[in-house]
Amino acid sequence: MNTFQTLKPVSTILFAALIAATVACGYSAKMTAPVAGTMPTIAQLSPGSATAGGAAFTLTVNGTNFASKAVVNWNGVAQTTNTTFVSASQLMVSVPAAAIATAGTIQITVTNPATPGTGIYGTGATLAETSPMMSFTVN
Questions:
Q1: Using an 8 Å Cβ cutoff, are 60 and 110 in contact?
Q2: What is the DSSP letter of 91?
Q3: Are strands 134-138 and 83-87 parallel, antiparallel or unpaired?
Q4: What is the Cα–Cα distance from 114 to 126, expressed in whole angstroms?
């Protein structure tokens, strides 16, 4: 029997013991759960209403805690391509004429998107947060 044949079982046993010790110590890469994000609030809509059948317009949403990628929701539908971030206290959204073709009450909210964690453990991730609703009237 040569030296290689003698050491092979020993190295296999040592390798298995090393794996068992690592698992037994509880080592594993655990992801950190996301935490609550910043809750946006709406203080004012400008204009506060529109005329049914009117022309397209820009709605200004004033409030607090708007993230740079915040999105205005029109009756629960995210206006991802229409929302413009102005500042942490102001967003603007382009409203097409078709959205105000008929009279009714529109519920406006703002959503701050979730943010991914960083590093191998995913630390710093946040959940998406949506503001309380504010009504916009189409007369």
A1: no
A2: E
A3: unpaired
A4: 5
Burial class (CB in 10 A: 0-12, 13-18, 19+), 117: middle
Cα 89 to Cα 108: distance, rounded to the nearest angstrom:
15
Pairing of strands 134-138, 49-50: parallel
Give the domain ranges of the chain: 41-138
Report the C-alpha gap between 59 and 78 in whole angstroms.
14
Please report, as a single letter, which amino acid is at residue 102: T
CA distance 37 to 123: 13
**pLDDT, block means (10 residues), the chain with 139 residues:** 59 67 58 85 98 98 98 97 97 97 98 86 85 98
How much is the pLDDT for 117? 79
Residues 57/67, Cβ–Cβ less than 8 Å: no
**CATH topology classification for 41-138:** Immunoglobulin-like (2.60.40)
Question: How crowded is residue 25: how many other Cβ atoms within 10 Å of its Cβ?
Answer: 8
Strands 71-74 and 77-78: antiparallel
Q: Can the peptide bond before residue 40 be classed as cis, meaning omega within 30 degrees of 0?
A: no
